[in-house]
Please model this.
Amino acid sequence: MIHNPLSVNLCNIELKNPVITASGTFACGFEYGKLYDISKLGAISVKGITREKREGNPSPRIAETYGGILNSVGLQNPGVEIFAKNLLPYLETQKIPVIANIAGDTEQDYCYLAERLSNTSVAMIELNISCPNVKEGGMAFGVKPDSVYKITKAVRKYCKKPLMVKLSPNVADIAENAIAAEKGGANAISLINTIKGMAVNAETRRPILKNITGGLSGPAIKPIALRMVWEASRAVKIPIVGMGGIMTATDAVEFMLCGATAVQVGTANLTNPLNASMIIDELRRYVDKNKLKSISDIRGQLITE
Amino acid sequence: MKELFLNVRENTTLIKGVTKIKLYNANLPEFTPGQFINLSAGSFDGLLLRRPISVFKYDAENKIFEIVFEVKGKGTAFLSRLKGGDLPGTVFLGNGFSLDQNVKRVALVGGGLGCPPLYSVIERYKGRGVKFYTYLGFSSQSKAILLDDFGKVSERLKVATDDGSYGEKGYITDVLKKDIDIIKPDVILACGPTPMFKALKALKLSIPTYISMEARMGCGIGACSVCACATISGNKRVCADGPVFNIKEVIL
Ligand SMILES: Cc1cc2nc3c(=O)[nH]c(=O)nc-3n(C[C@H](O)[C@H](O)[C@H](O)COP(=O)(O)OP(=O)(O)OC[C@H]3O[C@@H](n4cnc5c(N)ncnc54)[C@H](O)[C@@H]3O)c2cc1C
Ligand SMILES: Cc1cc2nc3c(=O)[nH]c(=O)nc-3n(C[C@H](O)[C@H](O)[C@H](O)COP(=O)(O)O)c2cc1C
Ligand code: FES
Model:
């Protein structure tokens, strides 16, 4: 077999490259599949899945801020059964590892979803305890280290796939939360989810989002995301998937230098639907130029002295 | 649907604050009238989102299409200054307006910057013996656009302004109501602001009516769910399930 310097190993899952499309910006890949061959992606993290169908929040649900976007979609999705029956089969034909991003109102919801999806072809489960746009559950489970530990431990029992816990940046100490997830039995950590924020129209004196607040993503949050990946990676042994404002391969490399095994690309898909694909191509040029045997060689190689 | 670099071929100021741009690419895909594009607005000023803009005219032979837009904020201000160069955009998006074989008489109702996409419908169906009766509403004479273009291809063109400075004073939907028994349309197609759709719905006409909705968008291709439009059967994506919906379906 030809050696692929971009391949990375995440919880014993072989990814063709470290680029994963982030939950909520890529649906289940079908739409992007009309624009490029999505089987080139390292993996896809699908839109947050709940037990029942959800309509999400009222529109407007997106606002543009300087170097960032705020969204308040609020986990609109067709529910786990429709996902398993109608959406997952398409992804199976694409032969890419699928990461099922799950969310619920209660601990039981998360356990149920983890168990249900363990009986499907998904490669991994991503526990979304960090959505700032829903009233019940969501971020409430992800703020305090105790609750991160408790929910991870509970879900672990029902989850037969590698379990990745997606951490919220809206917390006091990211390292403590990372440790809590690891102790609870997480196999990996992904971070960061969006940062709670808001945007206002000075003329109408109204918030731009109908939901008033939303989650900030994009380059505006990258420095915070890098810092959190750095702090988390020094606190735990399990692999870290970094994200927050990655627009180019250079951004992805920065996250890997700070300790990320792989990265997720979210907002960049909205800026240009080909961005995830272009980041992979650029990463290939990066390893060639730097004569790296493997992209993983740069993981955690930040020079600090 | 394709992601392409669109070459800016011509930039015309129609009236103060409204620009028309011609865009070219040798590989333009098929186009359905009423479809839109999701156009990059550059990366200056920290802009990340593309701007959804409808297609005004489409010339399949020369691989050129035109857009008409109003300068609202940073993105459209950037676009209005373009004189050349290439801009990435996803073309052509959404369902668009399509007419059944048996439709022979169409009433078009446009409000402000909702008018341009209606022209693409005439362009497509005019040669197939369909007659168009066009009703356009603007806030004032100084805001009226595309009257010559629509005038040339419509059986009848009526204009209303809020302040009465041009055409009839008041809502264009009231003008349509007065004419409805004379023009007897098989279908009504509308694009404009929500209050216009509400007024149209309030007429309670028994004629099938399709409206092109607006929503703030992210991806523009149906993947991010931000562009929700409330309908009687739950939230629909304006970019992929729309932008054209049956007026009966939408909760206005
Ligand atoms: C399907 C569709 C077709 C459209 N066609 C046309 C057209 O042919 N001509 C025209 O003049 N305008 C059209 N619009 C409206 C146009 O997209 C907005 O005026 C434009 O995005 C404003 O961008 P801005 O940067 O100037 O304003 P800003 O207010 O600075 O934009 C900030 C953000 O809000 C979004 N936004 C602001 N107003 C609107 C709006 N009314 N609808 C959707 N998003 C908005 C922008 O895209 C951007 O993401 C259309 C909108 C949609 C959804
Ligand atoms: C429109 C939108 C929807 C999102 N939906 C989800 C979601 O359902 N589940 C989740 O875990 N994260 C969701 N996110 C967060 C992203 O997956 C990602 O964590 C965040 O946007 C930061 O990465 P970015 O800056 O590359 O976008 C969403 C983000 C956006 C912009
Ligand atoms: S804009 Fe992304 S789904 Fe419509």
